[in-house]
Amino acid sequence: MFLVMALRARARLLAAAALGLALSACGNAVATGAGGASASSGETGKTTATGTQTGSSSTTSGTTSTLSPDGSSSSGAGGAVGCLTDVSAGHHKASCAGGIEYDVEIPAACTQSACGLVVDLHGYTMTGDSEDKNTNMRALGQQNGYVVVQPTAPKDLVQEPSWDQATHVPLVFAFMKDLAQSLPIDPKRIHAMGFSQGGGMTFRLLCTHADFFASGAPGGALPGCEFSGTNIPSEEVDILQMHGRQDGVVNFQAQAVPQRDAVLNGGWAFGAPSVLEDDGKHKATRWVTGNGTVFEFWEHDYLTNAVVVVPLKGHCVPGGNDFNGVPAGYSCNDVNTFAFGQLAMQFFLAHPKS
């Protein structure tokens, strides 16, 4: 039975060139968004992020909220809206619609004054906790004044967490809207990021809700937005895309480059590229529109030895600390690299919505 499932998973992976498709339909068809693009500029300060992340993840209180049988929940103390009924400072868990489990890190300062909000979405077989081992966003949120949301997808037929864009993007977005109403969130500082399947979810969130998100940082991402016709963000939004040139799951030339080119050719009138960094092992290139909207493309040659049906190779997160995960860790083995989580946080800080 195990061999049959493994073979079926392998066929699916190779056919779709994406680990996140496994045995279930991943929902990679692009959602319909508002046609056309109106200008929404971001700040354009140079973003660099070399070295590894610092700080440890916060693991304070472990309050858990659950949905009532009818799918609703009453507001709790602190102005809670939606299924997360405790929005006090600390770490909270909530079980919500669609079988999605949410880990939410709320800095103490964010219960009293305006803070940013980040959703950080994991890849296939991962969880919110393993995503944090790769990005360190809980600690970075504490340090920089951001509430951090790290959802865990419901399990698929082989009992691995798996996102379906068409099904889960609306649910994650609804959770984010509720949380933004529950806390003093600055609407100009709401961002999305993710890895692999979670990177595809990030593109899809930006494609369908550009008016809500200030910027996004998809890494090792599945496709999520065509940037053409009606499948284009309703307004310009700053994006940082990261991908391994030797990705063994989401092929660099077949997936990452076309997604990059879709952004650049989607009607936003980018200027000439400028190279921010290039040390042979990684390269960062920036484009800016006449409205000041920024697109950065970070490509790297970092690797992992991990195998999940197929060797992951460059399908890994630079600067992470996820080496012993089950079925695998997703951090790159290389040291002294840029750190994706730190890079994303610096990009978010530099690019609020105008």
Strand content: 15-25%
Order of helices and strands: HEEEEHHEHEHEEHEEEEEH
Which CATH C-level class is it?
Answer: Alpha Beta
Which architecture would the CATH scheme give at its second level? 3-Layer(aba) Sandwich
| Rg on CA atoms, Å | 19 Å
CATH-level-4 superfamily name? Alpha/Beta hydrolase fold, catalytic domain
SS class: alpha/beta
Give the biggest beta sheet: 11 strands, mixed
Question: Total strand count, please?
Answer: 13
What form results from the Cα inertia axes? globular
Q: Treating each run of at least 4 consecutive H or I residues as one helix, how many helices?
A: 7
Distance between the terminal alpha carbons, to the nearest Å?
54 Å
CATH topology descriptor: Rossmann fold
Overall tally of domains: 1
Strand order of the largest sheet: 1-2-3-5-4-6-7-8-11-10-9
Question: What would you say this structure looks like, in words?
Answer:
The protein is of the alpha/beta class and about 350 residues long. The chain has a single domain (about 45-350), classed as Alpha/Beta hydrolase fold, catalytic domain (Rossmann fold), CATH 3.40.50. It is about 25% helix and about 25% strand. The chain contains seven helices and 13 strands. The chain has helices at about 1-15, 130-135, 135-145, 165-180, 195-210, 250-265, 340-350, and strands at about 60-65, 90-95, 100-105, 115-120, 145-150, 185-195, 215-220, 240-245, 275-280, 280-290, 295-300, 305-310, 310-315. An eleven-stranded mixed sheet has the order 1-2-3-5-4-6-7-8-11-10-9, sandwiched between helices. Strands 12-13 form a two-stranded antiparallel ribbon. Helix 3 runs parallel beside helix 7 and helix 4 crosses helix 5 (about 195-210). The longest helix is centred in the middle third of the chain and has 18 residues, at about 165-180. The protein is globular, with a radius of gyration of 19 Å. The termini are far apart. Residues about 1-60 and about 65-80 have low confidence and may be disordered.
